[in-house]
Amino acid sequence: MHMTPYDYLIKYRIKKSSELLISTDYTITEIAHRVGFNHANHFIQSFKKYHKRTPKDFRKFRNEFND
């Protein structure tokens, strides 16, 4: 696996949040809480680390791609 349990957990939460960003209209804050982040800012920073864009930009890009 080559990662700490904490890093695995964050990566899993980011994966689940990506699915919610694509398939729902939940707010970024609501998605952050649903996947286990207590603070939206921490969620946004973690998301950006893995996807190189903010959750808002990720959702916008996906919506434009699917139109």
Tell me the number of strands: 0
Mean pLDDT: 93
Tally of alpha and pi helices: 4
Radius of gyration: 12 Å
Query: What spatial form do the alpha-carbon principal axes imply?
Result: globular
Identify low-pLDDT runs: none
End-to-end distance: 36 Å
Q: Name the structural class.
A: mainly alpha
What is the succession of H and E elements?
Answer: HHHH
Q: What does the main sheet amount to?
A: none
Helical percentage: over 70%
Strand content: under 5%
Write the layout of secondary structure elements.
Blueprint: H1 5-23, H2 28-34, H3 40-51, H4 55-66
What does this molecule look like?
This protein is mainly α. It contains four helices and no strands. The radius of gyration is 12 Å and the shape is globular. The mean pLDDT is 93.
List keywords for this structure.
single chain; mainly alpha; 75% helix; 67 residues; globular
Provide a quick synopsis of the model.
By secondary structure, the chain is mostly helical. It has helices at 5-23, 28-34, 40-51, 55-66.
